[in-house]
Amino acid sequence: MNIGIFIYPDAEVLDFSGPFEVFSTANRLSSIGEPFVPLLIAETLDPVAARGGYSVNPRCTMHDHPPLDVLIVAGGVHTEVMKNTAITSWVAHIARSAQLVASVCTGAFVLAEAGLLRGLSATTHWEDIAELKSGYPDVTVIEQQRWVDQGQVVTSGGISAGIDMSLHLVARLASVALAERTARQMEFDWR
Length: 191
What we know:
The protein has about 190 residues and is α/β, with parallel strands linked by helices. It contains seven helices and eleven strands.
């Protein structure tokens, strides 16, 4: 399964590195080979300066990636990204064929702008709950929950909550046993 993780300037480092590590670790522990192909995707192949100046090289772009089974949109400084119609249109397009679309932290705003949260429950970083509620009244915003699974769309709270959500995705896509082994290998207290 191709797991696309969308990154952009000032993306929160653990928002994309956490899910990447979960799927990479699950691959190492899987008894059926490597079920996941985690891919960092950006607008261009230029290095992306994430939060704190952390430089990351995407593997492919929005225009040249393989078919995606799962798309995860990282959070971070999201204001420009959610206004970029090329990005939100791409996210909406991917959602039509992907098995799952997910977000970590403020990546929920990108999903909301793409129209994917309409009529659903969702969450984001605790600091951005009020903004998500006021900006998208057609979304039921859930507080104090690490992740919210609405079937095809899954959202998580901020930063480390994306690891919890990614372990949940491993459980859904592979098995609970693999997710538990992955959490143990990562020495992560999965909630």
